[in-house]
Amino acid sequence: MDNKREFRRSPLKVQLRIDHPVHGKMMVTTRDISESGVFVVIDDARSLLNIGEVFSGQVQGLPVEAPVVRLEVVRFEPSGVGLVFQHDA
């Protein structure tokens, strides 16, 4: 299978706080990141999230406060969920 990704993924394991409109605050761990998005490890993600859903997230534990970003659910894997960064138009 060809890898058709536009941006290269880099391994990154950090804590990400998701602020979900229904489920509230959730702490998850990232697996990798690229210029366009991030993959997070979430048990049973399909029961919590839906494709196309948008919510905010913020990396935790940095020496300075990270920006809050908008994330959209784009794909599921058994180990978690792929999210793309949403940019204000």
Automatic annotation (TrEMBL):
SUPFAM superfamilies, A to Z: PilZ domain-like
InterPro entries named among the record's database cross-references: PilZ_domain (IPR009875)
GO MF annotation list: cyclic-di-GMP binding
Residues spanning the signal sequence: none
Domain PilZ per the UniProt entry, residue ranges: 3-87
Name assigned to this protein: PilZ domain-containing protein
UniProt organism field: Pseudomonas turukhanskensis
Lineage: Bacteria, Pseudomonadati, Pseudomonadota, Gammaproteobacteria, Pseudomonadales
